[in-house]
Write a structure and sequence with these properties.
The protein has 295 residues and is of the alpha+beta class. It is 41% helix and 26% strand. It folds into two domains: 2-133, 2-Layer Sandwich (Beta-Lactamase), CATH 3.30.450; 146-294, 2-Layer Sandwich (Alpha-Beta Plaits). A five-stranded antiparallel β-sheet has the order 2-1-5-4-3. A five-stranded mixed β-sheet has the order 7-8-6-11-12, sandwiched between helices. Strands 9-10 form a two-stranded antiparallel sheet.
Length: 295
């Protein structure tokens, strides 16, 4: 692979070698790595071993960068050191590969603070999480945004099988426009944030996730969950929302929600197929009077 890297890219790499601690070209498809400059870095900072093993690290910007063909950056803290990681997609020999640049920025961040202590370390960890969340979290609700949904849903579909079913639902707040018309758009934001919080509290911490699909719609992803179990989860959420009272202008406001649910047991479907399925089920829920789960 090395001889196929274009000359101008190689020239850039020479510059990068003077700036970064690690400079590599990664081709996950062919499971090859070219190391132009290497230093000892803890394993949990390196993305490529996961790619080469057909595994995926949490918040893998390498895969996201290759799929979106956009330059991506994140800061990672492994407990002792802080690393700045750049992924730059490049085209070579008619395929997209990745230039990975890693720099240890621990000293630059802590400045004169040689002994951070637990409070400083906790503060730094929170700062790093905040930075990494900016591109994947909805600013209003702090749950995943549409970009995350678009990137993660195809991966979830790839992993499902007859033994590992995947349940996907779209939830829509009923008569949301009426809330905005009656109390104003600020009230709508309050309702959306409250519902997002209820969703997060109703799913499993490991594996399940929710995202804001758009406006007052939310996507709920339940990996390794069959349709009966998923229906029970959604019914529990529906009842929680129905019983809730949201305070707006010192008034208690009641809301309900409708759900469309589809469970898939193979990875032959595309994300578009799955979204159409749940959209159709959601339409049925609304047509039948709302405040329902339709599977």
């Amino acid at each position: 692979m090395k001889e196929l890297i274009e000359y101008d890219i190689l020239q850039q790499i020479e510059v990068y070698k003077r700036i970064f601690d690690i400079v590599r070209i990664i081709n996950p498809t062919k499971k090859k790595v070219i190391k132009y400059k290497e230093m000892k870095v803890p394993d949990n900072v390196n993305c490529y071993p996961y790619c080469l093993d057909n595994r995926e690290c949490k918040d893998c910007i390498l895969k996201r960068a290759l799929e979106s063909q956009e330059n991506l950056v994140k800061i990672q803290h492994n407990g002792e050191r802080v690393f700045l990681i750049f992924i730059v997609p490049i085209e070579s020999d008619n395929e997209i590969i990745a230039l990975e640049l890693i720099k240890d920025i621990t000293e630059g961040i802590v400045l004169e603070t040689f002994n951070m202590g637990q409070s400083r370390e906790h503060e730094l960890r929170n700062m790093i999480q905040d930075i990494n969340a900016l591109i994947m979290k909805d600013p209003l609700t702090n749950i995943y945004n549409r970009r995350y949904i678009d990137e993660m849903l195809p991966r979830e579909i790839e992993r499902c099988s007859s033994r590992i079913p995947l349940s996907i639902a779209i939830m829509d707040i009923d008569y949301f426009k009426k809330v905005n018309d009656t109390y104003g758009h600020g009230a709508g934001d309050i309702v959306i944030k409250k519902v997002a919080r209820m969703l997060l509290q109703s799913i499993r911490y490991e594996g399940d996730w929710v995202g804001r699909y758009g406006g007052e719609e939310f996507l709920i992803c339940l990996p390794n969950t069959n349709n009966k179990k998923a229906y029970r989860v959604l019914e529990r959420i529906r009842k929680t929302i129905e019983k809730s009272k949201i305070i707006i202008d010192n008034k208690k406001v009641s809301i309900t929600a409708s759900f469309g649910l589809c469970t898939i047991k193979n990875n032959d479907l595309t994300a578009t197929d799955v979204l159409k399925c749940v959209d159709d089920k959601l339409y049925q829920a609304k047509s039948k009077g709302r405040n329902k789960v339709v599977i």
